[in-house]
Design a protein that fits this description.
single chain, 5 helices
């Protein structure tokens, strides 16, 4: 399959599209990893991680196409990323994830968190939140 020649390179795409592309790749990898975990963790940790990952995809798509709801959706995504970080730590502590898989998951979660922060800054959401916090 070839891409159209008039399509802009990914590097020039907006924060939203880059984050969505990166998260999609991460989800594919994560689903393959969690499928290898034992059944004893399948309905607890595995299911929670997978559900959060899939929820983030849905929220990213929604945030991309619904600008009025974007600030709230981006905050919700950030909270889900933080939950996933803790769940990954539990998976490592329970020896479900290899150290290499844990490192990759955390690296990708951190990258997506940074991209999400960039998106929030780009829409001015983070600066307004900080002003409200300092005025209290």
């Amino acid at each position: 399959m070839t891409l159209p020649l008039d399509r802009p390179p990914a590097a020039s795409a907006g924060n939203d599209l880059l984050l969505l592309q990166h998260w999609e790749a991460f989800c594919g990898w994560l689903l393959l990893q969690t499928a290898k975990w034992p059944k004893s963790a399948r309905f607890t940790l595995t299911q929670r991680l997978e559900n959060h990952a899939l929820d983030v995809i849905e929220l990213l798509v929604q945030a991309r196409y619904e600008p009025q709801q974007r600030p709230g959706l981006l905050r919700s995504i950030n909270l889900r990323l933080e939950r996933m970080r803790f769940l990954c730590r539990l998976a490592k502590a329970g020896q479900l994830a290899t150290p290499a898989a844990f490192e990759r998951a955390n690296r990708d979660l951190d990258t997506c968190g940074r991209m999400l922060h960039g998106w929030r800054v780009a829409i001015g959401e983070r600066r307004e939140t900080r002003r409200e916090e300092t005025s209290l």
